[in-house]
Amino acid sequence: MAQITFAELTVRDILTLAISSEEEDSRIYQDFADQLRERYPHSAKVFDAMAEEERSHRDMLYGMYKSRFGDHLSPIRREDVKGFLKRRAVWLVKNLGVDKMRQDAKIMEMQAANFYEKAADRVLDVDVRAMLLNLAEIERNHEKKAGELIEASGQGEAADEEAATKKRMFVLQYVQPGLAGLMDGSVSTLAPLFAAAFATHNNWSTFLVGLAASIGAGISMGFAEALSDDGSLTGRGSPWLRGGICGVMTTIGGIGHTIPYLVPDSVMTTIGGIGHTIPYLVPDSLPNAFFIATAIATVIVLIELWAVAWIRAKYMDTPFLQAAFQVVAGGVLVFLAGIFIGSA
């Protein structure tokens, strides 16, 4: 596509580009405000004000344009000019973070100021030149003001509110899927693992069952979490990130009490689920290897269940003793079910 250089722009082209840039920036700021209004109302007000400022600049520029060239704008577009400032398609990015929006705003104001300063050097019309220089100074002040306004929104009640919102989003996007996976992996794999252990009394066979159960549960939970919702309405973030976290934590939850059954002939490997699997690393060649592995696995199960209870107490506002009772009671029932079935 043919392009022209900035030096080839006419006054009419410069004003047209300035008008379209101010219009686009106002829409971007307004979109930021709309996205943040529910979760970050103070930051939304900042972007509302910035959007209104950009619209006032657009109107000022259009008034100057009309006085010089009439109602109809030049057909030139920013992509027709080599090296002209570009805006990222931020509206296509779901769940763009508030800090990223703030940073983008500072960059946009800096780029706009640079454009007006460079454009003023190209213009001979005294009035147009004065207006462009004035806008450049305004944009420079806006760059500073953007930081000041955003800092102001991060103080006092606004800071407390945004900190609470960030904590909620962290819990929704990371803690909840991770906790769900860890609980499922730690508990659901107990039955197949210990059923295989007591049915076969063979470490390697038990390890293979634990490995299969851990990986299978991780894949299943990962897809279930990713497909549960796309995060656009719930604010829970990227579905595939959540699914990945949930799947990995599920596998980790199942692997710990499986690894001890891993290696016959005293060769240690790191394959499979981590949590309650480690005890089965004890090779069958050792005296009482099965019982040693099972004892270690049982200890690791208790550690895993304690970790789940601690996470629930810290992030889900559940009293620790209540969380511990709920998690341990469920884990013990599944654990006993596996032993009962394996011993039948």
Structure description:
The protein is mostly helical and 344 residues long. It has two domains: 6-154, Ferritin, core subunit, four-helix bundle (Ferritin); 166-343, no CATH class. Helix content is 72%, strand content 0%. It has ten helices and no strands. Helix 2 runs antiparallel to helix 4, helix 5 (156-188) crosses helix 8 (239-255) and helix 6 packs antiparallel against helix 7 (203-228). Mean pLDDT is 80; it is low at 265-274.
Question: Structural class of the secondary structure composition?
Answer: mainly alpha
Q: Span between N and C termini?
A: 76 Å
Assembly state of the chains shown: single chain
Count of β-strands:
0
Major beta sheet summary: none
Low-confidence stretches: 265-274
State the shape.
Answer: elongated
Number of domains: 2
Mean pLDDT: 80
Name the helix and strand elements from N-terminus to C-terminus, one letter apiece: HHHHHHHHHH
Strand content: under 5%
Helix content: over 70%
Helical stretch tally:
10
Radius of gyration: 31 Å
